[in-house]
Amino acid sequence: MTTRTSSLFLPMLRSRQVGNWLAVAPFFLFALLFLILPTLNIVVGAFRDIDGHLTFGNLVKLSTPSIRDAFWLSIQLSVLTAVLGCFFGFLIAAALVFGKLPGGLRNSMVTFCGVAANFSGVPLSFAFIATLGRLGFATLILRNWFGVNLYATGFDLISFTGLTITYLYFQIPLMVLIILPALEGLRKEWSEAAASLGASGAQYWRMVALPVLWPSLLGTLALLFANSFGAVATAIALTGSSLSIAPIVLFAQIRGDVLNDPHLGYAIAFAMIALTGVANGIYIFLRMRAERWVK
Amino acid sequence: MKGRNIWSWLAVALGAAYFLLPLVGMFDFSMKMQRGKYSFEAYRVVLADPQFQQTFGYSVVLALLTIVLGVLIVVPTAYIVRLRFPGVRPLVEFITLMPLVIPPIVIVFGYIRIYNTSSILPFTGSWLGTNVLVLFGYAMLALPYMYRSVDTGMRTIDIASLTEAAQSLGAGWGRILATVILPNVFVSVLSGAFLTFAIVIGEYVFAALLNLNTFGPYMVWMGGNRAYEPSALAVVAFLITWACMGLMQLVTRFSKSSLAKR
User: Fold this and answer.
1) Total structural domains within chain A
2) What is the pLDDT at residue B256?
């Protein structure tokens, strides 16, 4: 990696430059061994059959109904939690920025969001089982105080709906953390200028604020999509393997080759990288656009 | 104006209710192990469980070693890139963002494929090798946060002058890094370290797929086999996350006030 890349910089190759490359070599070696090569191995494996020949057969097999359904479920889950996370996160952030709420409330909410965005995985699913499970806190309150039997209405925590509600617990805070600086970056002068030209509040939002914010909004949507798509531990701890979403299928495949085809596992992993990669690419691209306006 | 204020309160209150309810729920559930009364029985059982002590201790050791490894990888690199090698910055930054793009489960899949017993580097063939592999894996998961944190820290100090001053006194590179640069970015390192700790302590996917008995797989096992203990574990995990984030904010605030005094 080091030697290959340094040849790209041949014109400025000097002894000092060699020293610099040597100094950053451990970092690149680390990245190569534990990030780049493992990923490349998966990508290459996705395009090879068992004898090592080039093939698109593995990718074609992704369209078998069980795997296609798993991906479709994952995509629906990720899109839904991203959209809802963006929506509710935006409302909370907007309330904090424009609502003239006490300053302490803003700071404590931001601190809490920092915790909640990192409180994912296994403990989060336990918290939701203890709250919305069959004997959960909220389930019992609804039953004993309001006479509403949640589970008789068809609700189940171990389901698509339950997973959505659980994922929102880390999606909404992430949205708040990312969009809050963008909202605070909306300059007061802009709303004053709009008002002095006779714009109403709604017109200001539609014609000034949202056009400035939309790269941030869409970018965060893409980030939330990837965030939810790669989440494995939360889903496994919550549903076991009863809900077939793409990461759970991959997890089962790595554990015990349940698909009886190792290269199909590569193809699933490759498709996951492709989807999160595209989503993050959109995020990074739109983020750079957004930074032109909001500073 | 007044109407807007009511809507803002409503949005924040609904948000707070959604965020607090599961916390109340898990705490409530964790206290119900003994019939008919609230008690800390579930916590007592969990804390006395030798499996808990073992797996939790294991995860704490892994987290601390990951932090050391992360510092050793990130600090010298961020320093060289900032001081002498800005040309390579886009590449380094791109690499530090990659762990956010590639799902961890895919990376660990790659590890299992290329570091199995029949490869040149058979990490997964031995107990020690697997632990080394998982440490590097965790350092990689924490890389985006650690690098961002340290790099931001270096931006606020004048590393060029500090380096020249140290060099004029005869210090070598290792000495400059360890005794001049590291203490000056210590707050940023700490902030990255706390986040690393929070990530590693409850990590599940790497540990489960590499067959390591850390805290994450232990929690999942408890979840499948016990009723009240998982909630107690969730409360413990939440308190750890909260402590890590709180300490992170504290050191950042502390550094800001000490900078302001200068």
Assistant:
1) 2
2) 65
- A201 and A245 in a single domain? The answer is yes
Please judge whether A95 and B9 are an interchain contact, meaning their C-beta atoms are less than 8 angstroms apart. Answer: yes
Digit-coded pLDDT (tens) for B68-126: 999 999 999 999 999 888 888 889 998 998 888 889 999 999 999 899 877 788 888 88
**Are residues A37 and A74 both part of a single domain?**
no
Report angle CA B152, A213, B195 to the nearest 5 degrees.
Answer: 30
A122 and A205 part of one domain: yes
Q: Answer for the pair A35, B107: CB distance below 8 angstroms, yes or no.
A: yes
Q: Record the tokens describing residue B141, joined without a space.
A: 């998961």
- Give per-residue pLDDT as tens, A40-78: 999 998 898 878 788 888 888 888 888 899 999 999 999
What is the value of ipTM here, to two decimals? 0.87
CB-CB contact of B141 with B105 (8 Å):
no
Q: Quick one: A14 and A143 in the same domain?
A: no
Q: Select the residue from A137, A157, A165 to test the B interface by mutation, using most B Cβ atoms within 10 A.
A: A137
Q: Quick: pLDDT tens for A79-88.
A: 999 999 999 9
The pTM score is 0.87
Topology of the domain comprising B41-261: MetI-like fold (1.10.3720)
> DSSP state, A185?
H
B247 touches chain A (CB under 8 A): no
Asked if the Cβ–Cβ distance from A20 to B80 is below 8 Å, we say: yes
In contact, A238 and A158? CB cutoff 8 Å = yes
Window 131-190 of B: residues touching A by CB (8 A cutoff) are 136-137, 139-140
Q: Which residues pair with A54 in a beta bridge?
A: A48
User: Which SS3 state, helix, strand or coil, does residue A54 take?
Assistant: strand
Q: Is the dihedral of CA B160, A291, A86, A248 positive or negative?
A: negative
Three-state DSSP state, A50 = coil
